[in-house]
Amino acid sequence: MGGEFDELTPRSEPLHYDERPDPQGFAALRDTLRDAMAAAGFVRLPTEWWHFEYGTALWAEERREPVLFDATPGP
Question: Fewer CB within 10 A of the terminal residue: the chain, N end or C end?
Answer without folding.
Answer: C
